[in-house]
Amino acid sequence: MKRRFPLLISLVMLASLLLSACGGLGGGQDEPYTIGVSNSFITSEYRTQMIDVLENVNAEFMEEGVTTELVIESENTDVAGQIQQIQNLMNQDVDAIIVNPGDVEGLNLILEEAVESGIVVVAIDQEICAEGVYNSAIDQKEWAMTSAEWFAENLNGGDVVLIEGFVGHPANVARMEGVEEVFADYPDINVVGRESGMWDEATGQQVMADFLASFPDLDGYWTQDGMAIGALEAVIAADPAEYPLGVGEGRVKFLKLWHDVLQDRPDFETIAVANPPGVAGSGLRIAVELLQGSEVDTAKLGGECDNTFYNPIPIVVTPDNFEEVYNEYVVEGDYADSYLLDGVMSQEEVQEFFE
Predict the structure, then answer these.
(1) Is 156 left (phi over 0), alpha (psi -120 to 50) or beta?
(2) Looking at residue 233, which CATH number applies to its domain?
(3) One domain, residues 264 and 282
(4) In terms of DSSP H, where are the helices of the chain?
(5) What pTM did the predictor assign?
């Protein structure tokens, strides 16, 4: 017995280490889980709604005893600041990190370090290729191409301007690549100006006002997110005899603006493609599946690095379904002007990506 007891202790210690290692790979860790959130851009209604969605989905998990309160690091910061956010979360021993990366490569090392330490990492909204990290996002390129195709088909050629988001931001890069790809098939479209509206409604309005002053006979404009509201407000203020064709945003405020314009210009047309902050909620559901030990069916993932859970675009508003959507969100619904048309994958939909 004296010879077997140390051996028994050694076996127990070995088993404990193996269980710890399994947990470190995101498989079968003990509930409740602590989820950290890293957000580097707060001056955006999209990001505000994104955090709200995370808290709402997490509340469901908390009620089931699956998670604890979210640990949120959220402020306007650069790459170095976001690296510090992630380090702070690691120091607080979170089980998973949901991160909206401000740079497509700048966070890779710290995120890979988190994965190696046993933390599940899911990037949301943007796609990154860090080893061991999964993404929950819409296909940003396809998202932009949806409105760009409608725009190009209905424009019949002419001079257009582009109002883009933050230059160099991964989502903006993907979107503008999509727009350029679409326009390449329409040689009669002539891009006469391109400026950044900083993903800000007021800035988008000013940029559009400047474009209208420089190109009074402008035929069209393509833009994205809240800048579309500012751009249309600039067109309304300028009040040209014929409005340039433009694209809109899947937001309640834009639906109201669209409705108002139709009262004076019944032939007015545009398109609004929803960019759902709900990818964050889907990302949280994905993280919980990973923490519980579910195995990803990699054949169902997409993206440049085959690590992206692509969320469906929840709604595309066109002149064909505008009245129905307007009634749902404005006439019958109780939604704030800032609300973005949204969608979160259910746990069952997320599970379809797993074996």
Answers:
(1) left
(2) 3.40.50.2300
(3) no
(4) 4-24, 45-63, 79-91, 108-116, 140-155, 170-183, 201-214, 227-238, 252-264, 279-291, 322-326, 347-351
(5) 0.86
Q: Which two tokens stand for residue 76?
A: 């306007």
Answer for the pair 98, 58: CB distance below 8 angstroms, yes or no. no
DSSP calls for 239-251? --SSPPEE---SB
Q: Is the pLDDT of residue 16 over 90?
A: no
Residue 88 phi, psi dihedral angles, 5° rounding: -60, -40
pLDDT tens for 5-14 read 344 334 333 3
User: What domain range is 133 assigned to?
Assistant: 27-138+277-311+342-351
Helix, strand, coil percentages, rounded to 5, for the chain? 45, 15, 40
Helix, strand, or coil (residue 160)? strand
Q: At residue 36, what are phi and psi to the nearest 5 degrees? A: -100, 150
Phi, psi (rounded to 5 degrees) for 76: -70, 120
Q: Please give the radius of gyration of the chain, using alpha carbons only, rounded to the nearest integer.
A: 23
- The per-residue pLDDT for range 256-295, each reduced to its tens digit, is 999 999 999 999 999 999 999 999 999 999 999 999 999 9
Compute φ and ψ for 321, nearest 5 degrees.
-120, 10
Cβ neighbors of 249 (< 8 A, separation 6 or more) are 224, 225, 226, 227, 228, 229, 272, 275, 340
**Total structural domains within the chain:** 2
Position 214 scores a pLDDT of: 98
Encoded amino acid at 173, one letter:
V
Q: Among residues of the chain, what percentage have pLDDT more than 90?
A: 86
Report angle CA 157, 224, 40 to the nearest 5 degrees: 155
Instruction: Give ∠ CA 152-344-53 in degrees, rounded to 5.
Output: 110
